[in-house]
Design a protein that fits this description.
Blueprint (H helix, E strand, L loop, with lengths): L1 H11 L4 H17 L1 H12 L4 H27 L2 E3 L8 E9 L2 E5 L7 H12 L3 E5 L5 H10 L9 E4 L3 H8 L5 E5 L2 H12 L5 E4 L5 E4 L5 H12 L12 E5 L3 H15 L15 H16 L3 E4 L18 E4 L16 E7 L2 H9 L6 E5 L4 H9 L4 E4 L20 E2 L4 H7 L1 E9 L15 H26 L6
Parallel strand pairs: 3-4, 3-6, 4-5, 6-7, 8-9, 8-13, 9-12, 11-12, 13-14
Antiparallel strand pairs: 1-2, 2-16, 7-15, 10-11
Helix pairs in contact: 2-4, 2-5, 3-4, 3-6, 4-5, 5-14, 9-10
Length: 482
Amino acid sequence: MLERQRRAFLAEGPPSAAVRRNRIDRLMALLLDNSDAFIDAMAADYGTRSKAASLFTEIVGIISVVEHTRSHVAHWMRPTKLMRAARMSGLRAEVQPTPLGIVGIIGPWNFPVNLVVLPASAAFAAGNRVMIKMSEITAHTAELMKATAPKYFDAAELDVVTGGPEVAAAFSALPFDHLFFTGSPSVGALVQRAAAQNLVPVTLELGGKNPVVVAPGADVRRSATRIARGRMVNGGQVCVCPDYVLVPNDRIAAFVDAARETLHGMFPRIVTNDDYCSSVNQANFDRVVGLIEDARAHGAHVETIAPEGESLPDRATRKIGPTIVCGIDDRMKIAHEEIFGPVLTVQGYSRLDGAIDYINQRPAPLVAYWYGPDDDDFRTFVRNTRSGGVARNDFAAQMIPSAAPFGGVGRSGMGAYHGKAGFDTFSHYRTVVGNDLPFSITGTAAPPFGLPLRLGASAAMRIARMRTRRRLERGARGMPEI
């Protein structure tokens, strides 16, 4: 499959803007023409997953990002001219964005359509061909994508692979020109290790424990409502979900009361509620329940928000009730492991710098949340924490602008996409310089080295030393640099 795409890529060369836009259009047609089938497949994979939620998050929610990419393809393809003044004398230089070649995309199970279509659209915009490895956990969706793609694409443009972990391992070890992975940090490390054998560059979109700081000046009730609702998107199985909340000590009770009321109002029933998302499989159900029970066993206060008459968690439907956990400490697994379920932990803080220190003692998250005004405290929070993005007063607000790059940092990932960042990720910026002057500029680097060259080098060094010394002296006197 890879060799077929590589032969076609080399035979065609870098595609035109029209071809790139056409591939993006066919990718969107694949998704839009078959939206009902994909939504049904995802519902079958989860057991219970809201069809309205799948429509919004998997299809409608990505349209603006793809349209933004499509509309800018021709502009992003243009070479950047350098040294314009020298062109008249015969020295021409430019940087050309060129396709990498064949891009491998390994998709996750939590948004099995969204998170392969978005990177594929960026790879097409950059002029590449694409191979997708769908998640085996959402098998119905994977098989549907594999069966549907040939109706819209030649296999030399886009090909889809299905199969279990052994197929994923083989896929990761292929000599792609770029490998894009979305998933957990532990699996991401395996993907990066496999790719390294062929020196394949990787983009890793990973997860993490996303912190939320409720500011001293925040509206606690409004904050708790929004945070609780954000935690329940896709049953909490979202890499940008709020994971733990830091609340001023004297406002914890008010926060928990408001969150509890919100969750009760959202879900008057759960077990028979088609809008309440199940854990994707038994393994994730057992893992999340295990985190809750471990916290309880170590003394945490655990409150399950269950409708009257329902017993949760319910193993038959793989539904875990919304759960609020207080009194967390470092002995508990839930303090360290990404929850990826409908569970919110709440902790207190007395000073903002203490909350910031707590966050900074842990791996950098994919997103850091702040609920409160845009004031000096917020600017301190942004300046002194490290995360893939920052969102204030709303769930996943950092993803609202279609042009904004999306990606993690440190353990939450490397590289970014969405907007031009995606085009850049899947492009090689190639410098092209031509010299039509009657002499060689760089030939002076070869011997023999005459007196004019030596005098010129000595003068350049003297000027550079004086300039650097003046800057350091101005800095020492607290004066602005020139």
